[in-house]
Amino acid sequence: MTLVPDDRLLEGLNPQQREAVLYRGQSLLIVAGAGSGKTSVLTRRIAGLLQTREAWPSQVLAITFTNKAAAEMRERVGALIGREEAEGMWISTFHSACVRILRREAENFGFTKSFTIYDSADSRALIKRIIKELDADTLGFTVSGVAGKISKAKNELSDVESYARGANFNDPNEAGFVEIFRRYTESLARANAFDFDDLIAQTVYLFRAFPAVAALYQRRFRHILVDEYQDTNHAQYALIRELTRGIAPEHVPADTRMATSADGGIPGASLTVVGDSDQSIYAFRGADIRNIVEFERDFPNSRVILLEQNYRSTQNILDAANAVISNNFDRKDKKLFTTIGSGDKIIGFTGYSGHDEAQFVADEIQKLHDEGVAYKDIAVFYRTNAQTRALEEIFIRSALPYRVLGGTKFYERAEIKDAMAYLITVANPFDPLALRRVMNVPKRGIGPATEAALQSYADANQVTLRDAMRDASLLGLGPKVTGAITGLAQILDEVSATAGTAKVSDILVTLLQRTGFIEALRASRDPQDEARAENVEELVSVTKEFQRNNPEGTLLDFLTEVSLVAAADDLDDSSGTVSLMTLHTAKGLEYEAVFLTGVEEGLLPHQMSASEVGGPAEERRLFYVGITRARRRLFLSLAMTRAQFGEVNVAMPSRYLQEIPADLIEWKQSPGDATSRGGTQPRALNARRPQFSYASSFSELPAAPPRVKTEWANRVTNTVRDNGDLTLAAGDRIRHVDFGDGRVTAVTGAGPKSVAEVQFDTAGRKRLLIKIAPIEKL
DNA sequence: GTGACACCTATTTTT
DNA sequence: TAGGTGTCAC
Fold it and tell me: How far, in Å, CA of A215 to CA of A174, rounded?
């Protein structure tokens, strides 16, 4: 046995990285600038611990930000030291790790292991119900306001009781909130459910209330590593503290084979955290930057290692990033550098509208692709999800293969939620939220009145809604409804009985068939229901896929996995498509070429951030994160006007643009040029366009961009059309609404997906999806 | 209980 | 714009 890992683990590392891999001590903070190879360092550090037998795999707990990052880390450690050698490590997100612990331990405090995880939508639905019950909306309580406050409290480890202790009950707002919070907590407990924030907070409570349980995990995890430490919130911090606490002698089993300290206890686990306070972008979700800033104070005798050399981007990109972030005061100075060379200049572009901007992005992507950059190495970032609309429209028209990350819309579809609610009901019979959702799907004649009758029976007899359904015959309802209710209850009970053992897809198919769910969709004359039926079938495929990957996986495992997927998790490296995502989702990723769109006041920084403490600084970090994702090519774009809520507003360049040294950016079309270009934009706008030039727009940024309503609001977005069976062949002349006349040079693909390559007389070469492009044959 | 329709309002980021 | 809510007739 040797304590020095073999050379392969240290190969190609710089001295700081090397030290970060080799350091052995109780606590280590690795301050890792963007692109400084921290994943590499982390994986090699873990691999080293295992290789030297300082740790067994089961003694390692590594926390990552997304499931995808976890999978990648597992893979990379496996590649370094052998897959079997690496088995048994816990590498997961905070939430997944806590679910794993809670499923084992929930019975300690009144939950069953089949608890439901309420996602934000579920939480909001419950809060909405409570607000309605209490008529609290008349007092000014909103769902989002209450949800935010509850989440914040839980992230600070404050439950209703402790919150109430500090509350001022003379203030009706305060008193009302406490009442809602109390009912919310009770409802969750009755439903055998945890919300996202509970997963962390309840695990902390569990450890604090049951030291023997805590000791189990403290003994097990001897090496804890946390990535993206700057984005941990207080609850997560507390969890780490609990896990790394030493074990008191009375909780050490007599037959322990572990080294004990003088008093017979066991010292705490070693802790490695990796982070970069410049990339902290989740304060809005409770992330507390102090966790990383005060690490050295929290964990005395800790070592701090700085990684500043960047292996990802060109110097121009890094210079821009450094320049921007240096405007945040109150930060430790850190400058990224590289030996790659300065590289291409950053390209800037100002469009007239979001569509114009999107067209620029599409054109440049096409050019990059022609130069040999694969689509999968290109990403488009934006601040808000709403910005995808214009991008998608243009991308579809240009026949660009793309995929939108996040907005995991599949699971948000009503029919999928319904089908999932069936699964949840079967797994957790205590959950009324899921049951209520499916009670009348497909239509069984169980309306609000019947539901209320069931609910009051349940309340009066202190039983669950599910129990009440079994007793429906006692309620004096009509025979038809009664039959429908007891029939459903019976199906659910029978399927529930198999939930622990049966295959997930079998459970789902049985439910869909026996409840008549799928049949109702197929029999419907609403054409949309056909698509819905297909979606539900897609869900069946998803369960089958899940079972293939997890032969032992239970229904609970499936439900957990679905609840905890992160936006970045559905990134598929083999997809061959351009990736579209929010700046938040982009964290931790990197691309050959990056398009950062909507660099405008009001969007980046976002309007909403202006009123928040630290808002503008956090937005700047977001911009910084976006810039540093790019390896070689960076495009910054904005639009002069942006359609929003059916209105068109004038937008101003973002203040952050002027923080980038001018010589780093080459403007293809600067905000100044954009005001004077003639051409395709409507006259109405031309006439009233405010005259601001590039230079002056920076020196006199208004606090909020002026809102100008124009009459062509609807014109731009109404572009999706159908050319029917229009067929084109090379050589045809066509006319395009925006690009004018051109000649078709090639046609590829078939049917509705055929694409024409067109050389326009003035607008250059474009690819167009024939079916929907605004073109006519000449 | 259901479905159609009109009206109103809320718009950041996410595990 | 779009989604959610409320009202009304059947």
Answer: 38
The domain covering A7-106+199-309 belongs, at the CATH homologous superfamily level, to P-loop containing nucleotide triphosphate hydrolases (3.40.50.300)
Contacts of A170 (CB under 8 A, 6+ apart): none
| Residue A710: predicted pLDDT | 30
- CA torsion sign for A433, A434, A440, A446 is negative
Pick the CATH number of A318-405+572-676 from 3.10.420.10, 3.40.50.300, 3.40.350.10, 3.30.1360.120: 3.40.50.300
Question: What CATH number belongs to A410-567?
Answer: 1.10.486.10
The answer to whether A449 CB sits below 7 Å from nucleic acid chain B is: yes
A367 marked as part of a ligand binding site: no
Among A287, A290, A292, CA closest to A275: A292
Q: Give the Cα separation of A279 and A287 in Å (integer).
A: 11
Residue A16 Cα distances to A36, A304, A644, angstroms: 10, 10, 48
CA A302 to centroid of chain Cα atoms: 32
Residue A674 pLDDT: 58
Peptide bond just before A605 cis, omega within 30 deg: yes
Q: Report the C-alpha gap between A554 and A558 in whole angstroms.
A: 6
Straight-line distance from the first to the last Cα atom of chain A, in angstroms, rounded to the nearest whole number:
79
Residue A735 CB lies within 7 Å of the nucleic strand B: no
The pLDDT of residue A770: 81
The whole-number mean pLDDT for each consecutive block of 10 residues of chain A, a chain of 778 residues, reads 69 90 92 90 92 88 90 88 84 94 91 91 87 79 87 91 88 87 92 94 94 91 94 94 85 71 77 92 87 88 91 93 89 84 91 88 93 93 89 87 78 86 93 88 83 88 92 84 90 92 93 89 76 87 90 92 78 79 90 94 85 83 95 93 80 90 87 50 34 34 31 31 73 82 82 79 78 78
Helix (H, G, I), strand (E, B) or coil at A142: coil
Question: For A606 and B5, how far is CA from C1' in angstroms?
Answer: 36
- Domain positions in chain A are 7-106+199-309, 116-191, 318-405+572-676, 410-567, 733-777
Q: Which residue pairs from A494-500 have beta carbons closer than 8 angstroms and sit at least 24 positions apart in sequence? A: A495/A426, A496/A426, A496/A427, A496/A429, A499/A114, A499/A426, A499/A427, A499/A554, A499/A555, A500/A554, A500/A555
CB A85 within 8 A of CB A248: no
Annotated catalytic residue within A105, A197, A198, A228: A228
- Same CATH fold, A410-567 and A318-405+572-676? no
Q: A117: which 2 tokens?
A: 């995880």
Task: Say what the pLDDT of residue A673 is.
Answer: 62
A227: annotated active-site residue: yes
Is-contact A119 A432, C-beta < 8 A?
Answer: no
pLDDT at residue number A716:
30
Tokens found for residue A30: 């690795």
Query: Counting every residue, how long is chain A?
Result: 778
pLDDT at A672: 63
Nucleotides of C under 7 A from a protein CB: 1, 5
Q: Is A39 annotated as a binding residue?
A: yes
Dist. CA A94–CA A105, nearest whole Å = 16
Q: Which of A410, A407, A388 is nearest to A585 (CA)?
A: A407
pLDDT on residue A721:
53
The string of DSSP codes covering A173-189 is HHHHHHHHHHHHHHHHH
Whether A408 contacts A570, CB under 8 Å: yes
